[in-house]
Amino acid sequence: MYPPRRGGLPARGYVGRVTPALSxxxxxCAPPGFPLRSITELLQAPARRNQPTLHPEKRDGALWIxxxxxxxxxxxxxxxxxxxxxxxxxGEVPQEQKDKWWSDFVQKYYWDPDHHTLVxxxxxxxxxxxxxxxxxxxxxxxxxxxxxxxxxxxxxWQHWDTPQAVHISTINSQNRKSDRGGDGIHxxxxxxxxxxxVKYDMMMELGEEPSITDLVRKTHMKLDGTFxxxxxxxxxxxxxxxVVSQQLNNNEHVEVGSQETNSHTPITPLxxxxxxxxxxxxxxxxxxxxxxxxxxxxxxxxxxxxxxPRQARYERDLFNLTGVVNLMSQQISALCEARGVRVPHVTxxxxxPSQPPHSQTSPSEAAxxxxxxxxxxx
Length: 378
Fold this sequence. Notes:
Blueprint: H1 20-23, H2 39-43, E1 53-54, H3 69-80, H4 95-106, E2 110-111, H5 116-141, H6 150-160, H7 163-176, H8 195-206, H9 212-220, H10 230-250, E3 253-256, E4 259-262, H11 269-279, H12 304-338, H13 363-368
Parallel strand pairs: 1-2
Antiparallel strand pairs: 3-4
Helix pairs in contact: 3-5, 9-10, 10-11, 11-12
């Protein structure tokens, strides 16, 4: 059984329908002489259920994008085997070509229709990242990638040598080398492993989903305990300061009537996440410290930056309410003890809705119960 994950369910999927652009896409793998199958037909094909399954929580041995290498390999293999244009990024690729790559992926994996939007979003982002990284690496090293033809490589360089392209490249280089207001150039220690993969490995080790600050520590803290990135350390320290202060406030003495009690509220991962999002705001759709992990449960309507703080508030309110209930229970027990009334301790769990409440008293039993046995506090 896999650890629970926070942030709500993935985005609402298209059930039995896709966008018009996808419905017109054809299957490039169809044999000669046979009509091309649309994306809609491919998605509804019964044979897809025999393919490896994709699931955001990797249930029952399922795979997932940006976590399992075989999925990423299939995404890369699709475009490297059919790359026939001067496409230095995904935006330059014709829609027809992107649809062909998508249809190739659709035929290799199966996923629940509710996850269709999430899968398509992550597939697109992974494809965009792979194309840009491979082309950019070839440009920096002045070495043509193997999947790019000589003609297309020369056409790319013709574009990169234009004044407009040179200006954009200079600005992007300056942004990457920016000291971020004194924080220095961003550095991490995760290497080529995606943040989503790092987070999943932590879930398997801890048995629960780690907090964002735990993920930031894992991806930015060296073996000697120092941070490779100055901003990462500042964020972690500020988050811990916030949650400790909140815990002290929640654990203050709460007066109810004439008695006091301590309501000890533990610090949970959700509370740390709420503090994280209170100081780290999304910039151009990205959140510092999350990397690819921020897209694992992407929902444009309820993104994690909105869902997690809301869940943290619910959790904190629940702890506070539990403390109040416990205090009231103690006061009632003390009052009954002072008046010599015995209060039985109820240890049974509430009956399941499908089962009859066996603890209830029937009308005949109620009639036979002596009135003197019913305690009165008046």
